[in-house]
């Protein structure tokens, strides 16, 4: 492998490690409480090296969000041969499987808004993703699979909300209930979602 490629791989691996560290620390302490010193210590690099990769935490968050959106959009493209209702069901499964979990605590705490405001390219990417999901809903409505009176933004919001439903033993409402195994629980949530979309 040429030296340039090796150095690029080192750079990319270190950058991924920084974003992973941000995800871990933000989940425990909150994004606003994570310092550049914390991140450098967590990755095992100097603060100067950290700043070579990212000028600020805001820039890191933008990179983290862009990475997750890109992965999601690429994955969504792989489902294009499926019927719209099945695609939306798969989106909920994708979300419930934890692919977007690293962003949940950040989004819940409202730390995402300033990042979006300062990165217009990220807003464009985010809007494109929402437009793709809306197009799937609209296609399902045209084909008669999805109720025509459901607004696409509502369907998308419900998908995101369902992905936050606790799984496994946390899924019981009462102490005396026997918790469902995770797979059964997810399957029932997906069935509930699909039935709610049908005309």
Radius of gyration: 20 Å
CATH architecture classification name of the largest domain: Orthogonal Bundle
Question: What is the CATH third-level topology name of the largest domain?
Answer: Tetracycline Repressor, domain 2
CATH superfamily of the largest domain: Tetracycline Repressor, domain 2
The profile of the biggest β sheet is:
none
Q: Tell me the strand percentage band.
A: under 5%
Please count the helical segments. 10
User: What's the CATH C level of the largest domain?
Assistant: Mainly Alpha
Features:
mainly alpha; Arc Repressor Mutant, subunit A; single chain; 2 domains; 10 helices; 199 residues
Description:
With 199 residues, the chain is an all-alpha fold. It has two domains: 1-55, Arc Repressor Mutant, subunit A (Orthogonal Bundle), CATH 1.10.10.60; 57-197, Tetracycline Repressor, domain 2. Helices cover 71% and strands 0% of the residues. It is built from ten helices and no strands. It has helices spanning 3-29, 36-43, 47-53, 57-77, 84-96, 101-108, 112-118, 120-142, 152-162, 182-197. α1 (3-29) packs across α6, α4 (57-77) runs parallel beside α8 (120-142) and α8 crosses α9. It is elongated and about 60 Å long. The N and C termini lie far apart (57 Å).
């Amino acid at each position: 492998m040429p030296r340039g490629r090796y150095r690029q791989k080192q750079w990319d691996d270190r950058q991924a490690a920084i974003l992973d560290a941000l995800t871990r620390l933000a989940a425990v302490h909150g994004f606003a409480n994570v310092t550049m010193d914390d991140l450098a210590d967590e990755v095992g690099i100097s603060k100067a090296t950290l700043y070579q990769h990212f000028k600020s935490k805001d820039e890191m968050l933008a990179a983290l969000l862009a990475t997750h959106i890109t992965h999601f959009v690429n994955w969504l493209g792989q489902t294009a041969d499926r019927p719209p209702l099945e695609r939306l069901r798969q989106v909920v499964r994708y979300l419930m499987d934890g692919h977007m979990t690293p962003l949940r605590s950040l989004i819940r705490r409202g730390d995402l808004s300033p990042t979006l405001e300062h990165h217009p390219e990220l807003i464009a990417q985010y809007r494109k993703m929402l437009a793709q999901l809306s197009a799937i809903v609209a296609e399902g409505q045209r084909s008669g699979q999805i109720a025509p009176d459901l607004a696409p933004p509502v369907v998308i919001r419900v998908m995101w909300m369902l992905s936050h439903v606790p799984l496994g033993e946390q899924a019981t409402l009462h102490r005396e209930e026997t918790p469902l195994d995770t797979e059964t629980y997810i399957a029932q949530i997906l069935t509930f979602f699909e039935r709610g979309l049908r005309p």
